[in-house]
Design goal:
Elements (H helix, E strand, L loop, with lengths): L3 E4 L13 E4 L7 H4 L6 E15 L1 E2 L9 E6 L4 E5 L5 E10 L4 E2 L6 H12 L11 E10 L3 E10 L2 E4 L2 E8 L2 E10 L10 E2 L4 E3 L3 E11 L1
Antiparallel strand pairs: 1-2, 3-5, 3-6, 3-16, 4-15, 5-8, 7-9, 9-10, 10-11, 10-12, 12-13, 13-16, 14-15
């Protein structure tokens, strides 16, 4: 617990007693009356490398031809200001990516199969990239320098949906790696599970999103 010090407010004769200002200083080994204002330690961090992954699962009698699959998009540009000495952090974040930037992990696909999968992904039944070319997430990171949450909402296919991630952070000198995870349903983000061949191939109503991001202090 820090000691409580009362700082004088307006001391003129006509000033109301309500004008007195009270502040709490959390002190370890320094005297705030001697040192005055404690300097901020805000530093700037830039996202230098990262990607966003979305994992879907197949079902149906022909699910062997569809496979469970990851889709990846490069992480967007992002600069943050962070006070690493703060007991808790609340860092606002607002990022956007082109919806067309998601591509499947496709080592097992022929060129024809890859084209068909991309057409389905970008078409009106899934991301609908012609009508909605951008996916946006806005909110804040809330936590500390080891773990916390991304609390906010995504704008996807013309809808705004809550999308909160659990985050872990590894911090080493002037570098940091953040890993964020969300698990839910496709319908949670406004996407109906895709199906083909009268349902013989279709997606389960499940979705996992993972974000990996590497930051460097500027």
């Amino acid at each position: 617990m820090g000691r409580r010090y009362r700082l004088p407010g307006n001391t003129s004769r006509n000033a109301s007693r309500r004008s007195t200002t009270t502040a709490t200083w959390h002190v370890t080994s320094c005297n705030p009356r001697r040192f005055g204002r404690i300097p901020m330690t805000t530093s700037k961090w830039r996202l230098t490398k990262g990607r966003i992954g979305a994992f879907t699962e197949a079902t149906g009698v022909l699910k062997a031809f569809a496979h469970d699959r990851w889709f990846f998009a490069p992480a967007p540009e992002l600069d943050l200001e962070v006070d690493l000495d703060a007991a808790s952090l609340s860092v606002p974040i607002d990022v956007s990516i082109p919806s067309v930037s998601f591509e499947p992990e496709a080592d097992d696909l022929s060129k024809r199969e890859l084209k068909q999968l991309l057409d389905n992904l970008r078409g009106s039944k899934v991301l609908d990239v012609r009508r909605y070319p951008t996916i946006r997430w806005h909110g804040a990171y809330v936590g500390d320098t080891t773990r916390g949450r991304l609390e906010g909402a995504a704008e996807l296919r013309g809808r705004t949906v809550p999308l909160n991630f659990d985050v872990t952070i590894e911090l080493a000198d002037d570098r940091a790696h953040a890993h964020a995870v969300w698990s839910g349903k496709l319908t949670d983000v406004g996407i109906a599970p895709f199906k083909a061949l009268l349902g013989a191939i279709r997606l389960k109503d499940t979705l996992k999103i993972e974000i990996d991001a590497e930051f460097e202090r500027q």
